[in-house]
Amino acid sequence: MRGWFEQRLDPNGAGKKDNERKSIRKRKKNAPRDLSQYGDRIDVEASIDHESDSPYEVVFISQTKATTCYWCKGRVRDKASDPPPPAPHVIFLRHKECRVYQRSGESKIRITKTPEAVYYHPLRSCAPQAIRDNIEIEETTKERLVESNKTASLA
Predict the structure, then answer these.
(1) Residue 87 and residue 117: Cα distance in Å, rounded?
(2) pTM more than 0.90
(3) Rounded-to-integer distance, Cα 24 and Cα 47, Å
(4) Distance from CA of residue 24 to its chain's centroid?
(5) Domain ranges within the chain, ordered by starting residue
């Protein structure tokens, strides 16, 4: 009877039934991994260099599903199906980047593995890396631009 009483006072099993007292490891203990097959780690900056190589493209908002500027989070329309705003606010700068995002209800920050299209207002405050040397405009887009677009862009 004494063994039973001492077992009940054990703080590790306090408030538990007899079958709940002991947790049994179900997995077998594995040997340590051989790390000799792995090379040195790659610097984060070296793996993101391809982003700076891709140009910024001038696109009309109506040709995209974009609703928000990636930098300032300013909304240009509520839904992708809504009509675009009036000129000169009808253009965006599109750039391929590894997006940083959070799923709703999670606190963990995620980064996409492959570069995806992100959209910026054509302003220096929203796209500071976009300079005249790395901005591309297709001929069809250039023909559709109105004078207010040309003067308002990258002001």
Answers:
(1) 23
(2) no
(3) 43
(4) 40
(5) 46-152
